[in-house]
TrEMBL record:
Residues 1-17 form the signal peptide. Residues 35-261 form the AB hydrolase-1 domain. This is Alpha/beta fold hydrolase. One of its GO terms (molecular function) is hydrolase activity.
């Protein structure tokens, strides 16, 4: 009896050890490199909270300052969409390949041009409430297709037509009506007129280059700048299959940074699979 009991105990221990080896282990989170490109009438500060969220998860984050924005003093007449594109390419020159390139609003035009130029460096292009052109389209072409946008009537061109202002009393209600008072004040404090020439820059892309890069779109459902209807139209034209939504204004990185960062982390991890 004693031998039988010992034998049963030994068998139980072996079975128990075997079951333990089959237990699921926590999924390994692989660090990802994100490159964040802001839009018009904005600057790198808009990504501060999202950058902190992504970096706090062990990811590398590169925030690009487009020429003529933030603290950059390039004259408006010197600016072009190609210059924006090259600035992003320079910013990621030393970064890992297979990075996640994120563009918001006008930044969507920029990352499309980058995707055409260096497709092998990019794992996924992510558009957040962003313009996404068909071949040969400029931002102005897409804006003309958006009667639901409230931006057009609020624009004030400079005398030399090199910059565009947004009526100051409508700025926060247009870009971030769902944000806190502190967020709205940051938008006002960092505001500067937008260079106009890059809006007319056309993006020529091919199926072999840009067309071969994985793309994800994050729709901004309360957007007053790029309407959800235009977003749907651009998504369909580009054939994007992976679409997420944020129930936010045009500026989810300010009003809902945790939710947006969570989506970007999800996209980054899916890109590694």
């Amino acid at each position: 009896m004693k031998q039988a009991a010992v034998s049963l105990m030994a068998t139980a221990m072996i079975l128990s050890a075997g079951c333990g080896n089959n237990e699921e282990k926590p999924a390994t989170v692989v660090p990802v490199t994100y490159v964040l490109v802001h839009g018009a009438w904005q600057a790198p500060y808009v990504w501060d909270s999202v950058q902190a969220e992504l970096s706090g998860s062990g990811n590398k984050v590169i925030v690009v300052t487009l020429p003529g924005h933030g603290t950059d003093t390039t004259a408006p007449y010197q600016l072009s969409l190609d210059l924006y594109r090259d600035k992003v390419i320079d910013a990621i020159a030393a970064a890992d390949s297979n990075l996640i390139l994120v563009g918001h609003s006008m930044g969507g035009m920029v990352i499309t041009a980058v995707g055409e130029k260096i497709p092998s460096r990019i794992r996924t292009l992510v558009y957040i409430g962003a313009f996404l052109p068909s071949p040969g389209q400029a931002l102005t072409d897409l804006a003309a297709l958006d009667p639901d946008s409230r931006l057009g009537p609020l624009l004030i061109p400079s005398a030399d037509r090199l910059t565009l202002d947004v009526k100051r009393d409508s700025l926060t209600s247009l870009f971030i009506h769902d944000g806190s008072e502190a967020d709205k004040q940051r938008v006002l404090d960092n505001y500067r007129p937008e260079p106009a020439i890059p809006f007319t820059g056309k993006v020529a892309w091919t199926r072999e280059n840009f067309g071969a890069v994985e793309k994800v779109y994050i729709k901004t459902l309360q957007d007053k700048v790029i309407s959800p209807r235009l977003q749907d139209s651009m998504i369909a034209a580009a054939g994007i299959k992976t679409v997420y939504t944020v129930n936010s204004s045009h500026s989810p990185f300010l009003s809902q940074p945790k939710e947006l960062a969570g989506l970007l982390r999800k996209i980054g991890q899916q890109a590694q699979q």
